[in-house]
Amino acid sequence: MIRIREISLPPEHNVAQLSFEAAQALRISVSKIRKLTIVRRSVDARKKPDVRIVYTVDVSVDGNENKILKQSGCKRAAIANDKYYKVPKCDKDPAHRPVVVGFGPAGMFAGLVLAMAGLRPLILERGEDAVSRHEKVEKFWKTGELDAKSNVQFGEGGAGTFSDGKLNTGVNNPRIGWILQQFVKAGAGENILFDAKPHVGTDVLLTVVQNLRQRIISLGGEVRFNAQVTGLLQENEKVCGLEINGSEIVPCDRVILAIGHSARDTFRYLQEKSIPMEAKPFAMGVRIEHLQQNIDEAQYGCHNPVLPPADYKLVKHLEDGTVYTFCMCPGGYVVAAASEECGVVTNGMSYADRDGENANAALLVTVNPKDFPSQDPLAGMCWQEEIEQKAYAVGGRNYYAPAQTVGDFLAGRPSKGAGSVQPTYQPGVTWCDLHSVLPRKITDALKQALPQLESNLKGFSHPDSVLTAPETRSSSPVRIVRDESRQSAGLRGLYPAGEGAGYAGGIMSAAIDGMMSAEAVIESL
């Protein structure tokens, strides 16, 4: 297979043009190309408004590949040489099957690897299945009636299910391609295999996570919902069982703890049991909304319906921290993401077609343990809670979110209502001054960074842009300490994994970490 990079085409191209350009690069006729597979597709808007679609493709050809490469003299072409992930197998039949706690990306892919290895894992999820959970979340968004057990944070698929479903990551790992393939087998579009910034969309993810669950079950695994782990049983500093829902005991000796970043009651329990934990840096801030059409024009230099809704990724380093955008959702919505009563949390979400009127992103400020109110390992978590509860009070104690336009925020005056950008957060927003909600460290950094980010993206600090607060759960404020074997430093047989344990930040990195923890369990057997 010959891999050809940097094939640049206009947005209105077709497949025939892509094949023609591949043949031209190799100096052969199109008829000699037996098969063409897209490996990567990205948008190049550096010379706006002349936006281009750039491809990397693999082609199989009639004739000797090395000879064709040599004759072509094309420096953009080479023999494809990919590394593929293979799930390890385990021939042993352990006395106790491994248990996975949590069914978000880390727990889901840990469970899938264990099931494919033949170990019939038991997966425990405190929340509900995707269908039941979706009903509860939709009700919350419409009425403000929160179910603390089944919400945007807890349930099948984890917090990632109610997001944009972005599958890009900054790490380079052979497991990435395999994870994407599992998503496609479960119902995601094949374009995630080659898009430079792959995303699934919340509407599709709801089906995908159910199909992944069914695959685990078909391989001998078991998934139980409404099954919250309330106790860790130990003997001689080793795990020997789990308590579920305060009563049932499950004997086990290998537990992958993939609880997610919002399981605060579990963090408190672990601290009581002297499981080593430490505070870690994370970020908090707001959601910022713009009109998607304005983002398209700023990024592309035009509005072309053939092009995908434009995204962005911005960062500004300040003297006392960093302000950056995260989890940008083109054509998306700001959503209520609370999991505890009397607290307001925001997040971003978009559907597969990304056809919403607004674009939104988290606009975050990094915070470090030295910034926390105390030096307790859970101090960052407690700080999150304090901000969320203050937002609840300012919002009206009905899960409305505090909101302010950028113009008013920079001017230091309370907002009275929306301008050209209508907020998408449901059940609704309360216009106010966000300085009364967020810590000064965050408001000072945002006030400093917003005008500077305007130079990176025209219109970013437009006065009508909407800030909705707070975005407090971008990542975990806690790290459960583990050693080189990926086991807890204080309890053998306990494998902290994923975002909640402090070792990932997003769907893909969490899935990778869960897989590596599953591999460590297999190795231990």
Topology, pairings included?
Layout: E1 2-9, H1 15-26, E2 33-44, E3 52-61, H2 65-72, E4 77-79, E5 99-101, H3 105-116, E6 122-124, H4 130-143, H5 175-185, H6 202-218, E7 222-224, E8 229-235, E9 238-244, E10 248-251, E11 255-257, H7 264-272, E12 277-279, E13 282-291, H8 292-300, E14 315-318, E15 321-329, E16 333-336, E17 346-349, E18 358-367, H9 379-395, E19 401-405, H10 406-411, E20 429-431, H11 440-453, E21 466-471, E22 478-480, E23 494-496, H12 507-524
Helix pairs in contact: 3-6, 3-12
Structure characteristics:
28% helix, alpha+beta, 525 residues, 23 strands, five-stranded parallel beta sheet, single chain, 12 helices, globular
Secondary structure tally, helices: 12
Q: Low-confidence parts lasting 5 or more residues at pLDDT below 50?
A: none
Compute the CA-based radius of gyration: 24 Å
Main β sheet profile: 7 strands, mixed
Mean pLDDT: 95
Strand fraction: 15-25%
The secondary-structure class comes to alpha+beta
Task: State the shape.
Answer: globular
Strand order of the largest sheet: 14-15-18-13-21-19-20
- Intertermini distance: 38 Å
Strands, count: 23
User: Which bin fits the share of residues in helices?
Assistant: 25-40%
Describe the fold and architecture:
Helix 3 packs parallel to helix 6 and helix 3 (105-116) runs parallel beside helix 12. The longest helix has 18 residues, at 507-524. The two termini are 38 Å apart. By secondary structure, the chain is α+β, with helices and mostly antiparallel strands. The protein has helices at 15-26, 65-72, 105-116, 130-143, 175-185, 202-218, 264-272, 292-300, 379-395, 406-411, 440-453, 507-524; strands at residues 2-9, 33-44, 52-61, 77-79, 99-101, 122-124, 222-224, 229-235, 238-244, 248-251, 255-257, 277-279, 282-291, 315-318, 321-329, 333-336, 346-349, 358-367, 401-405, 429-431, 466-471, 478-480, 494-496. A 7-stranded mixed beta sheet has the order 14-15-18-13-21-19-20. The model has no long low-confidence stretch (mean pLDDT 95).
